[in-house]
Write a structure and sequence with these properties.
The complex is a heterodimer of chains A (103) and B (237).
Chain A: H1 3-24, H2 32-50, H3 61-76, H4 81-102
Chain B: H1 2-33, H2 38-48, H3 51-62, H4 67-78, H5 80-91, H6 100-106, H7 110-118, H8 125-149, H9 155-162, H10 164-177, H11 181-199, H12 208-226, H13 231-236
Helix pairs in contact in B: 1-2, 1-3, 1-8, 1-9, 2-8, 3-4, 5-7, 6-8, 7-10, 10-11, 11-12
Classes of the chains: A mainly alpha (103), B mainly alpha (237).
Amino acid sequence: MSIYLYILVMAGVTYLIRMLPLALATKEINSNFIKSFLYYVPYACLAAMTFPAILSSTEFLISGIAGLVVAVIVAYKEKSLVVVALCACAAVFICERIIVWIA
Amino acid sequence: MNLENFKKGLKAGIPIGLGYFAVSFTFGMMAVKGGLNIWESVLISLTNLTSAGQFAGLDIIFANGTLWEMAFTQIIINLRYMLMSLTISQKLDKRYPFFHRFFISFGMTDEIFGVSAASSGKVSPFFHYGAMAVAIPGWTLGTLVGAVAGSILPNFIISALSVAIYGMFLAIIIPPAKKNKTLVWVIILAMALSSAFKYIPGLNKISSGFSIIIVTVLVAALAAWLRPVKEEEEAAS
């Protein structure tokens, strides 16, 4: 089968999923339950995507843990997104260099 | 005003672009290794702008799967975007014309959703455009470099960059949780449940995209039921 057909279906389905709620839900939702639900969605969703996935995103488990701990601390200090992201990267980098150096 | 929002979006998009580069680099490498050419790999990234969905899509292409299989897999893995778009539909500044919704939906990724949902008050479509202006090139160029260069970037660089996205997620959810105890419980419960879906035999058969929807819906509904948000709290978020 043509690769372009696959890509068309993939991209088309993904776009529709993203577009339909935005195009259809134009009115303000009044239900307090739905409003509260949508208020909590980002926190539940981003938390679920971060953990435990962060632990297996790096080369070693221990460097994933280092990245997680550093990110939590720096985020708790309310530093900007870029700073938190870079600190987590640096923690992973340093941790893995140490592991390689020891081994 | 539009330019200002666009710039804010650009700034929020920097860590996103950085993290995307690492992930899509891997995607480009895998796509070429599996038999696609460079152009096809880049085209997938440019038109899909999603990670899990693209990796799953590659598997189906390589296995010569049916188009139905492709469509169904994308729906399951990417269904979470419906929740995200629904959330943003309520947050979008109503003063902007309707057509913007068709463009920002193309860029509704986990990360852009995250920074948009976390921004205070109503959100302008130009904030989304700003973030997309960094995120889309990051995702597409990462794929291109990965497809061309194969394994030229050493593993430890990829490893360090891969964590950027998670760092950013934490930077989004942790500060508001300092002032709101319910959010602390929402975060802990979501992480615990998502671990259960990854490690408990049986539960770990459910795809990661689908388990994220289940966890999100369960936890957000529970929190909304036990701790409904008052109007002023929502306005402050």
